[in-house]
Structure prediction request, 325 residues.
Amino acid sequence: MLRAYGPACDGKVIDASVERIPDDAVWIDLEEPTKEEEKLVERCVEVNVPTQAEMAEIEPSSRLYEKNGAIYMTVSALRGVEEHLPSTTPISFVLAGNRLVTIRYATPKPVRTFESHARRDPDLVRDGPTALVRLLDAIVDRLADEIESVGEAMENLSKQIFQGQPDQRRIPADRLTKLLTDIGRTQTLLSKIRYSAVTMLRMLSFFAGSNLVHEETRKELRHHVSSLTTDVTSLSEHASFQTDSLQFLLDASLGLISIEQNAAMKLFSWAAVVFLPPTLIAGIFGMNFHYMPELSWSYGYPLSLVLMLASAVGPYLYFKKRGWI
Prediction:
């Protein structure tokens, strides 16, 4: 689908059969473009439209370059968070003169948000560079919102792990499974955020070094790109800090599992020690040899019971006194 935005274009769909794209179209958005739509843009804007395979490449030289006076940049945008299936999708930006062409095969939330704002406020797309930095601003804001959500999720995880009372820290198996699952999902989301932030930072660094940004009349653009670079750097550092904190929470959760396992093994160990002497005594007197003097004792049976009881209580009291149980 091909949409055009500009002072006189409010996101109307352009049919691939038309001869020309309107001259006042500043932002041309290609969503899952067809071959005909790609050819129309290439003919009217005089740029090469990257294919989906080219957009998926991760080498900086394949994502960030200039060709025939146009600037080609590709960033991986975060998507699928609301569906609990976070992933990244490449979005290519082609800045050719006063026009911006975007190519994408998915619709992340910040893109939908910016489309809505561009329809209401045409000043956001008064020229290509302005449309680009405003769209990047929306993507960065979305990353910041998701990092804040990750922080809240980690706070809840910390409360579950580090309960106020020691007895409350004994988490049942089903809750412990859910806890580890939540940590894993949070880690997945955080890794996608960091990857998106890294690609965004590379793109901004490349764009900041272009001749377009350093033109005398682009002072406001330089300030905006510098501000975005600072924001993304801060977000990337904060995401790294959250990654370390999440690793600590994972280690703490695994530590709780080890404590529970050790407690269970400790229970079995002292139970075995307590019941081993009575079992030994019962085994001795249950051998039924003919020449066993105890078999003819009148009080042999109650004596053996008392002996077994004493052999069980004795180790228990000893362990209790030493604080082992």
The chain has a mean pLDDT of 83. The helical segments are 35-45, 52-56, 60-63, 109-120, 128-161, 173-208, 219-285, 300-322. The radius of gyration is 35 Å. The longest strand covers residues 70-79.
